[in-house]
Write a structure and sequence with these properties.
9-stranded antiparallel β-sheet, globular, alpha+beta, 3-methyladenine DNA Glycosylase, Chain A
Length: 197
């Protein structure tokens, strides 16, 4: 039986949270269905000390969730076409977050395929490998999900623990950033076929 991760899980440095999120389950309620995927790739961002972080330049209306309490969804729009999902970390007032980069789909694959605009013959890796893909597959948008409490059992966006433990975790430089690009704060479950490229 799975349980929702409590708020205290997120009261830590983003790199610890990012590593410990691997193997947990991201769950999205859509109508009467749960779309779920195991978290296999994350990236940590450190707020005001991290040139690649959205919080680096200070608090704005766009990034306010990162400066608030931990355990809340921060969704941003990139390249005019993709949503990206993060969760806030650190105590209230200290910005930090973790980006979800890839999931291994567990349930709701038919709905995910439809939301991604793919055919039934598409490989499962095309559903949720990459931050934009996983948001599209789960129907996650800034307008609907930014600021949701992922620690609430009433939330349509939750992060759950089901007892799974990764055998091996690797840390690599982050992807797609130009500043602090060599920081080794991308975490992956080694050998998982759903990790993004």
């Amino acid at each position: 039986m799975s349980r929702i991760l409590p708020r205290r899980f997120y009261f830590r440095s983003p790199d610890f949270v990012a590593r410990d999120l691997l193997g947990k389950v991201l769950a999205r309620r859509l109508g009467g269905e749960w779309l779920t995927g195991r978290i296999v790739e994350t990236e940590a961002y450190f707020g005001k000390d991290d040139p690649a972080a959205h919080a680096f330049a200070g608090k704005t209306a766009r990034n306010a969730v990162l400066f608030g309490p931990p355990g809340f969804a921060y969704v941003y729009f990139i390249y005019g076409m993709y949503s990206c999902l993060n969760v806030s970390c650190e105590p209230d007032g200290k910005p930090g977050g973790v980006l979800f980069r890839a999931l291994e789909p567990l349930s709701g694959l038919e709905t995910m395929t439809r939301l991604r605009g793919l055919t039934a013959a598409a490989k499962p890796q095309l559903l949720t490998s990459g931050p934009g893909r996983l948001c599209q597959a789960l129907g996650i948008t800034r307008a609907t999900h930014n600021g949701l409490d992922v620690t609430s059992d009433k939330s349509e966006l939750q992060i759950r623990e089901d007892g799974f433990r990764p055998k091996s975790i690797a840390a690599t430089p982050r992807i797609g950033v130009t500043k602090a690009a060599d920081w080794p704060h991308r975490f992956v479950i080694e050998g998982n076929e759903f990790v993004s490229g």
